[in-house]
Amino acid sequence: MKDFTIHTIESAPEASKPLLEASVKGFGMLPNLHGVMAEAPGLLEGYQILHKLFSESSFNAEELTVVWQTINVEHECHYCVPAHSAIAQMMSVDGALTEALRNGTAMPTEKLQVLHDTTLAMTRSRGVLTDDELAAFYGAGYGQRQILEIVLGLSQKVMSNYTNHLAQTPVDAPFESFAWKK
């Protein structure tokens, strides 16, 4: 098996260079995930666009974290679980929520539990939810916009989780203290 290249701005394909520059500007560093994705400029650009769009969705910081981490943990992504643990901390999300997501324990509120359960069901069933699952989601106060925004978040996470599985992307130094194994 050939090792995947973790590109720098200098080594990246020309079309990826401005995308990597944007990563450095946004994160203060070049995440290894972005360096791997740079090999396919369309993948990196699509990932960055989906990240921006999902971050600007109707979900608050806790809800974003629930969707991201539910998918990351279900996909057993060795890179994204620590990365999003650090991101949650930067977004001032309560560490107890992050730990519950990482460890598969109950969410701190019923609404977040329903969001977690719905995201997990969507991930496992490839978007096929039962009437009861949808009714529980809507009963918790979410609407059609939010169910569709889970699809957006799931799309973003498939791109990163699958890339990390293929490339065995090394966890960046700032995220190493959040290392995770299922």
What brief labels describe this structure?
mainly alpha; AhpD-like; 0% strand; globular
Structural overview:
With 182 residues, this protein is mainly alpha-helical. The chain has a domain at 59-178: AhpD-like. Helices cover 63% and strands 0% of the residues. It is built from 9 helices and no strands. It has helices spanning 17-27, 32-37, 41-55, 61-74, 80-90, 95-103, 110-125, 131-139, 144-167. Helix 3 packs antiparallel against helix 9 (144-167), helix 4 (61-74) packs antiparallel against helix 5 and helix 4 (61-74) packs across helix 9 (144-167). The two termini are 25 Å apart.
CATH topology of the domain at 59-178: AhpD-like
Largest sheet: none
Please give the alpha-carbon distance between the first and last residues: 25 Å
The number of helical segments is: 9
The CATH H-level superfamily of the domain at 59-178 is AhpD-like
Helical fraction equals 55-70%
CATH architecture of the domain at 59-178: Up-down Bundle
* Rg value: 16 Å
The CATH class assignment of the domain at 59-178 is Mainly Alpha
User: What's the mean pLDDT score?
Assistant: 96
Assembly classification? single chain
Structural class: mainly alpha
Number of strands: 0
Shape: globular
Strand content is under 5%
Topology:
Blueprint: H1 17-27, H2 32-37, H3 41-55, H4 61-74, H5 80-90, H6 95-103, H7 110-125, H8 131-139, H9 144-167
Helix pairs in contact: 3-9, 4-5, 4-6, 4-7, 4-9, 5-6, 7-8
